[in-house]
Structures are given as structure tokens and as C-alpha cells.
Write a structure and sequence with these properties.
The protein has 85 residues and is mostly beta strands. 9% of the residues lie in helices and 35% in strands. It is built from one helix and five strands. Strands 3-2-1-4-5 form a five-stranded antiparallel β-sheet, with no helix packed on it.
């Protein structure tokens, strides 16, 4: 699990069938001191996260497959929660 900041939303007209109905966010992973940790990545979200909000993301492939209902998905990051302020 890692802290990230939502920096945008993504849309796609052509995508893997397992991603239908899921919101795509562009998130910037953060270090403990809130500095950037690498480049922005795409994550699926069902919590309604907004631009500027901090989120907790996870890359556990088995858990993502369970949440999405399919073991064969190209998704690698999911929003798990929104930390309290």
C-alpha cells in the first residue's frame, strides 16, 4: 500500500473488457515526506476520489482480480481508501 495524490482522470474508448464500468484516475505516488515517488500511474477507483485528494493505492494483483471479479485483468493499481485529514 502506498500514499498517492490524485492529479487527474483518464478516459478510454478502447480498453480491456474487465475495465468496463471502472473510473480511471491518474495518481502521483508519494514518499513519506510527500515528495514525488516516480512518475504518475493509472489506478482504478470506485470511491469517487477527486483531483487534489490523497488516496491509498495498492498493486496486489490477486486482490485486484478479486475486487474486479476476474483473475485476468491488466489493471495493476487500485484505490483502496482515502486517508483522514
Amino acid at each position: 500500500m502506498q500514499l498517492a495524490s490524485v492529479i487527474g482522470h483518464a478516459t478510454s474508448t478502447v480498453k480491456h473488457h474487465s475495465m468496463n464500468g471502472w473510473r480511471l484516475l491518474v495518481v502521483q505516488p508519494l514518499l513519506a515526506d510527500r515528495g514525488r515517488d516516480g512518475t504518475p500511474i493509472l489506478a482504478i477507483d470506485e470511491l469517487g476520489s477527486q483531483v487534489g485528494q490523497d488516496v491509498m493505492i495498492c498493486s496486489d494483483g490477486k486482490m485486484i482480480g478479486d475486487v474486479m471479479g476476474t483473475p485476468t485483468t491488466p489493471v495493476r493499481w487500485i484505490v483502496l481508501g482515502q486517508p483522514d485529514d
